[in-house]
């Protein structure tokens, strides 16, 4: 994970550290660790796709999705909001399964419940370059 371009961070130090650990679980593609950050009734939605309801379904979804690329590294640009509701603007650096590097701009909205777990995660990004055919 890269934080050297982080310009604005409106989170408390405690929530920022929680969020860094959360993002590191994603970057490591460790779905079991990532699940520890989710409320049982968490809802995840990507773009206009149907929401994925519940921690168990999210883990199942991500276990499959994370095999579709070799690696991911978040490059944080801005974090706006409060410790309960916040928005991340980032560059996501992927390595495709064919070894090609792809960088995609992304925005993620996160809501945490009273226990500090992710209750809702919505992310918006155009992953077309991640899955495009290899250029000849």
Automatic annotation (TrEMBL):
Domain SnoaL-like, first and last residues per copy: 21-117
Species, as recorded: Hassallia byssoidea VB512170
Protein's name in the database: Nuclear transport factor 2 family protein
Any Pfam family: SnoaL_2
Family matches, as InterPro entries: NTF2-like_dom_sf, SnoaL-like
Source species, domain of life: Bacteria
């Amino acid at each position: 994970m890269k934080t050297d371009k982080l310009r604005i961070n409106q989170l408390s130090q405690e929530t920022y550290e929680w969020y860094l650990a959360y993002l590191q679980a994603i970057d490591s593609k460790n779905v079991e660790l990532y699940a520890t950050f989710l409320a049982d009734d968490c809802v995840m939605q990507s773009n206009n796709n149907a929401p994925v309801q519940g921690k168990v379904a999210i883990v199942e979804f991500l276990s499959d999705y994370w095999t579709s690329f070799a690696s991911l590294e978040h490059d944080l640009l801005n974090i706006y909001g409060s410790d309960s509701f916040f928005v991340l603007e980032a560059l996501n650096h992927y390595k495709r399964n064919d070894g090609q590097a792809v960088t995609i701009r992304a925005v993620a909205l996160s809501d945490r419940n009273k226990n500090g777990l992710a209750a809702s995660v919505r992310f918006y990004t155009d992953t077309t370059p991640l899955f495009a055919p290899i250029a000849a």
